[in-house]
């Protein structure tokens, strides 16, 4: 399904994936994004426990809102695909 580029998987264009490939990509992407969000939250919690807060921490918090929106989009994609068979 995906080629490797510099150690990271590069997916084919969505419109060139089969429905099964797209479903798999959505599941894998959701899991990876959830892990990323958990790592960032743990990082922010550790820093907050030490009383550390910088503009980077604020950027991570803002990114979490975008990441939550992307997760919701992936959920919507999966719902749409489930209706297509």
Considering the chains and any ligands shown, give keywords for the structure.
mainly alpha, 2 strands, 85 residues, 71% helix, two-stranded antiparallel ribbon
What does this entry show, briefly?
The chain has 85 residues and is mainly alpha-helical.
List the helices and strands and how they pair.
Elements: E1 3-5, E2 8-10, H1 19-49, H2 55-83
Antiparallel strand pairs: 1-2
Summarize the structure in words:
The protein has 85 residues and is mainly alpha-helical. The chain has a domain at 36-85. The protein is built from 2 helices and 2 strands, in the order ββαα. A hairpin with a 2-residue loop joins strand 1 and strand 2. Helix 1 packs antiparallel against helix 2 (55-83). The mean pLDDT is 91.
Rounded mean pLDDT is 91
Please give the count of helices.
Answer: 2
Radius of gyration: 16 Å
Q: Termini distance? A: 20 Å
């Amino acid at each position: 399904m995906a080629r490797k580029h510099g150690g990271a998987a590069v997916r084919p264009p969505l419109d060139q994936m089969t429905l099964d490939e797209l479903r798999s990509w959505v599941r894998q992407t959701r899991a990876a994004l959830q892990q990323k969000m958990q790592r960032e939250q743990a990082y922010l919690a550790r820093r907050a426990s030490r009383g550390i807060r910088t503009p980077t921490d604020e950027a991570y918090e803002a990114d979490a809102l975008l990441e939550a929106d992307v997760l919701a989009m992936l959920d919507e994609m999966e719902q749409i695909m489930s209706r297509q068979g």
